[in-house]
Specification:
Shape: elongated
Order of helices and strands: HHHEEEEEEEEE
Number of domains: 3
Radius of gyration: 22 Å
Structural class: alpha+beta
Helix content: 25-40%
Strand order of the largest sheet: 1-2-5
Length: 149
């Protein structure tokens, strides 16, 4: 991959960057922020392993779906293989908050922004892959419209 291809790729937030952001926002030592992040992530993993659903209001929810057994193909040899049933984690984004309206403008929001759509990605063979997140812009101009007087 060339450097020009890398610049167009979306930025990835790493666990280390998340720890630094928590440390800066809460004014705690980096070691303490690392324990906080690790505890939150471990608690979420344990809850999912127990079959629980995780709901973070204003952000989204995590859950598990059961996938049945299916017939697949070994990509290297092309021979048929049995794929066993498994549980897969999914994320459903929460509804975006209604944007605040400035008090000095007489504005109104005609429609609420649509929630991002998460659609399963399908291969040419029809197999369902990991979900893709499709986000549409909330408002064409990015700002609420003025009320007509």
């Amino acid at each position: 991959m060339s450097k020009t291809d890398q610049s167009s790729a979306p930025r990835t937030l790493t666990k280390a960057e998340l720890i630094e952001a928590v440390a800066a926002a809460t004014n705690v030592l980096k070691q303490d922020a690392e324990r906080i992040v690790a505890t939150v992530l471990d608690t979420m993993v344990e809850a999912l392993q127990d079959g629980s659903r995780i709901e973070l209001r204003g952000f989204g929810s995590f859950g598990l779906r059961q996938r049945g057994a299916r017939n697949g193909r070994n990509p290297a040899t092309g021979e048929a293989v049995e794929v066993p049933p498994k549980r897969v984690c999914y994320f459903k984004p929460g509804a975006p908050p209604i944007p605040p309206v400035s008090s000095d403008l007489k504005c109104y929001v005609t429609t609420l922004p649509a929630a991002p759509a998460v659609r399963p990605r399908r291969s040419p063979a029809g197999d369902v892959g990991p979900p893709t997140l499709e986000i549409e812009p909330a408002c064409p101009g990015g700002a609420p419209r003025r009320a007509e007087a």
